[in-house]
Design goal:
The protein is mainly alpha-helical. The protein contains 16 helices and no strands. It is globular, with a radius of gyration of 21 Å.
Length: 363
């Protein structure tokens, strides 16, 4: 077994153990057991899917770090254990975009059919998924701009036909799978159009948007070292730091528009992050139910991107440490990802520390 497969198996084992730990099935009814098992399975498969998606987008080392962070994330573990349908939104998006990216990268049209199955299935997870087609459109628009500016005329014409065929198959499959949902909403329009649970039910909607944005930043980036209230944060403070580094670094890279167009991979990342935040920003921020805020559960749809950007930030720090180590000790021993012994051990220590911080919140 290759090193990459061994790492993935270890990550899967960690994901399963963290999600099964503490579950008392004896207290649950058969229906509750089924719901929790499906939710836990979706959580574990999301970890696997994120590994393969990031591997296609970037490389194996970032894939391993991102999926490990998702595997130990107390936020993701908690939503998995709750049996909440919101775990299926990120699950469906991860696999839909994996097959979209695979189809674009290798010109395999069958992948667009598989992507359509997952994209259509995501609509059954709730209204938080309904903006996912916007992300798909932005990715295809950016890819179209990329091939138009970087490909020769003959290659552009061939790729254009393949992209159009793949996009058409994706949309038709998505519509076919999601048709029952659309028919149900057509018969019950208040479920989609009601403003009872939105900012439009408040006297000052723009003030509510500002408050909701502050709430999101507070949940993700507020750092309270050793404070008992840090349990309220959705990610531990080291992840908040690495996420901030990764976010700023990758946003600058995206906005530079190298070769006259946006990076397709970064358009995918930031469109998912920003577009899928809109339902939370437009929410009237209802009170907690059973001690868990509905907005927190819904916010889990952007968690895979938070872990990816955190992995980007962490790897940037480790690379800087690696360069400094090589400057001091020219005779080095390469380990995983070309790291020297010191930076490699530092990265392992960081990941284990983050895992302990995250898992401790579940105890």
């Amino acid at each position: 077994m290759s090193r990459g497969k061994c790492i993935l198996v270890l990550i899967i084992a960690v994901a399963i153990l963290t999600r099964l730990y503490g579950l008392d099935f004896e207290l649950l009814s058969l229906e509750q057991k089924t719901s929790v098992l499906l939710s836990v399975s979706a959580g574990v498969l999301s970890v696997v899917g994120l590994y393969f998606l990031v591997k296609e987008l970037f490389d194996e080392k970032l894939a391993a770090i991102s999926s490990f962070l998702l595997a130990v994330s107390f936020w993701h573990v908690l939503v998995s254990k709750l049996g909440a349908k919101d775990i299926f939104t990120s699950f469906a998006l991860i696999f839909a975009f994996y097959f979209i990216w695979h189809g674009l990268k290798y010109n395999r049209i069958f992948n667009f059919f598989l992507a359509g199955l997952f994209l259509g299935a995501g609509f059954y997870a709730g209204k938080g998924f309904f903006l996912a087609p916007v992300v798909v459109l932005l990715v295809f628009w950016n890819y179209w701009d990329y091939i138009k500016k970087d490909f020769s005329l003959s290659k552009y014409e061939q790729t254009k036909s393949e992209v159009l065929a793949g996009f058409s198959l994706l949309m038709l499959t998505t519509l076919a799978v999601a048709l029952p949902v659309g028919f149900y909403l057509w018969q019950n329009p208040p479920l989609l159009l009601s403003a009872d649970n939105s900012i439009f039910a408040r006297p000052n909607p723009f003030t509510q948007i500002r408050d909701n944005l502050g709430w999101v930043v507070d949940k993700i980036l507020l750092i309270e070292f050793g404070s008992p209230t840090s349990r309220a944060n959705l990610i531990s403070w080291p992840l908040s730091i690495f996420f901030a580094i990764g976010f700023i670094k990758e946003l600058i890279h995206w906005l530079k528009r190298k070769h006259g167009h946006f990076s397709v991979a970064h358009t995918f990342i930031f469109s998912w992050l920003f577009v899928m935040l809109i339902p939370t920003l437009l929410s009237s921020n209802p009170l907690a139910v059973n001690g868990v805020e509905p907005s927190v559960i819904g916010l889990s749809i952007i968690l895979p991107l938070i872990m990816l950007l955190s992995a980007k930030g962490l790897w940037w720090v480790i690379e800087k440490l690696n360069k400094w180590d090589r400057a001091l000790y020219p005779l080095y021993t390469k380990h995983w990802g070309g790291l020297d012994t010191g930076p490699f051990l530092a990265m392992i220590a960081l990941l284990l520390s983050i895992a302990i911080l995250e898992i401790a919140k579940l105890i």
